[in-house]
Amino acid sequence: MRDDIGGVDTGAGGTWASGDYARVGNRWLLVGELLCETAGIRPGERVIDVATGTGNTALAAARRFADVTGVDYVPALLEHARARAAAEGLDVRFEHGDALELAHPDGAFDVAVSTFGVQYVPDQERAAAELLRVVRPGGRIALASWAPDGYLGELLRLVGRYTAGASGDAAPTRWGTAKHLERLLGPHASRLECAERQWRFRFRSPADMIGYFRAYFGPLTVAFDVLDDAGREALTADLTRHIEAAGAAPGGTVEVPSTYLEAVAVLAS
Q1: How many whole angstroms separate alpha carbon 105 and alpha carbon 162?
Q2: Terminus-to-terminus CA distance in the chain, angstroms?
Q3: What is the pLDDT along the chain (269 residues), one digit of tens a residue?
Q4: How far lies 3's CA from each of 177, 180, 250, in Å?
Q5: Is-contact 17 76, C-beta < 8 A?
Q6: Distance separating alpha carbons of residues 42 and 51, to the nearest angstrom
Q7: Count of alpha carbons within 13 Å of 160, Cβ hemisphere only?
Q8: How many CA atoms lie within 13 A of 255 on its CB side?
Q9: Is 143 exposed, middle or buried (0-12, 13-18, 19+ CB in 10 A)?
């Protein structure tokens, strides 16, 4: 599978094997819990978490006594997810797999979820088709996706701009717009409900925030690796301006809002 986040083609899983996604995903652990609440996941329901990463949303579903499968194509992330499940005594199947070719039959699940995961798959139509295929008629698809506005949207735009690979119509943040989800999922849904939410990143300073994402967030890690010194300096300056414009927090710290779209599609019966 081609992995061209922000225009950087690093091969299957390369971007997300860079950095340390576990150190980034733990910043927004609550988002998966909130998504499971909005989706109304119930005990005994068959749930698949696509592009599960380190398992935030899969574990949230398991805490609601669902029968959960988490799928990702980065083995190191799956190992981390398995360790977390074991530490909490939660029964989750974590499988190595591709969001474009899920190894499950049609209608195998009551609910498909993804938190800041499936939106990064390059072939968006095919990824949406796979979600629709593995969920039974009348089931639900619940997604949390970074929107174009806010810190993550701006970060991904800058990565694309600086690596000469702005994604255009395939930009990952299109999943964070109701219009795009209506096109991908709407024709197959009896109901599609979308709501904008905000996640607030809190760091000691702009430099601390940029350093953290540079070290651990794969797309930014890869971007800094491929840029020359001048490019790294310019990208850092742009990110700093964006963070400072978000406003300072008490004690000289920063609090940066990042908009995401929480969506639940109920499939037609």
Answers
A1: 41
A2: 32
A3: 333 333 333 333 555 556 577 777 778 889 999 999 999 999 999 999 999 999 999 999 999 999 999 999 999 999 999 999 999 999 999 999 999 999 999 999 999 999 999 999 989 999 999 999 999 999 999 999 999 988 888 888 888 888 875 433 448 999 999 999 999 999 999 999 999 999 999 999 999 999 999 998 888 888 899 899 999 999 999 999 989 888 778 888 999 999 999 999 999 99
A4: 22, 21, 39
A5: yes
A6: 21
A7: 19
A8: 9
A9: buried
The answer to whether 216 and 254 have CB atoms below 8 angstroms apart is no
Sort 190 into a burial class: Cβ within 10 Å, 0-12 / 13-18 / 19+.
exposed
Question: Tokens 């799956």 — which residue?
Answer: 78
Question: Whole-angstrom Cα distance, residue 216 to residue 201?
Answer: 15
Count of residues making up the chain? 269
- For the chain, the 3-state helix, strand and coil shares in percent, each to the nearest 5, are 50, 25, 25
Token reading at 88 = 């909490």
